[in-house]
Structure formats: C-alpha cells, structure tokens
Amino acid sequence: MKVLLHICCAPCVIYPLRILQSERFEVMGFFYNRNIHPYQECQRRENALRTYAEQVDLKVIYQEGYDIETFLQNVVFREEKRCLYCYHDRLRSAAIIARRGKFDYFTSTLLQSKFQKHEMIRSIGESLGKSYGVTFLYRDFREGWKEGIETSKRLGMYRQQYCGCIYSEKERYFR
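^ thats the sequence. predicted structure below, dont judge the formating
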C-alpha cells in the first residue's frame, strides 16, 4: 500500500515515517512550502529535509518555486482562519499529487504536532480524500512528538521555532 506523506519539516517526519513503515506502507514524501516565511526559513527546512531524507532513503517530491504571495492573498483580512486555509491548501495539493501518482492514501506530518488542530486537519483531509478519490489516512502521531524532538536534536537537525507562516512567527517572537 502506497502512502503520500505531506511533510512540513524534517523533525516532524521522523516518527510518522517510522510508524508508517512499521505498518508496511511504502512511503513517499511531499514537501509543500507555500506558507513558510521568510524565504530563508523555507530553505532551512527544505535543506534539513533533503539531508534527512537521504539518510533514511526517503523519496520526496519538492514543490517548485516559492509562492508566498498566494498564501498571503488568501489569508489577509482572515488571519484568525489562516490555519483552515493553510491546512486545506497543503492537503489539497497532497491529494492531487496522490491521485496523479496512484497512491492508496495520503496523510500529513502535521498530525505529529500537539500544536496543530487535529480535528480540523482530519475533517479537511477526509473531505478532500472523497473529492479526489484518494483516502486520507488519519493517524494521531502526537504520541511520538517527544521522540521526534529528541531524535532531531541527536541528529543535529535544524529545528524551527514556529509553524511557518508570518503570523505564527509573530506569535512566537513578538512580546
């Protein structure tokens, strides 16, 4: 069974990848970066993922380009609902790739974070799965959150300090 795993960053792929492989899934990654700000942050995350993917022999599809403008245009004046748009955008892109690649399932490393809105992700993923004809594989990977942190530190992996968008960056650093 083939699963496309949307990847937000390298530290968050560690545990979900291990679990999915232990369940005998053939996993391919998909790094989608439209929301990540600033550009240097996006590059750090992609570089960390490239290094880790090579270490664990994970094939990854990388979104080309850097289209922060589309993300901003879709959340401006709706900042309190930005996560809804962001989840939908990333999962929709994953569903499209999964359908084209004839994957049995798609899922996301967003489900590894205790800071993400799991029910919203699940609802969006399941709805998109029905629309695109590829099943959304929901797994609550939060139990591996600490494992991912410890492993990423041990590996000297770049670990970001905020979700990715300009708004989450402000929430993290502005006091």
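The mean pLDDT is 96.
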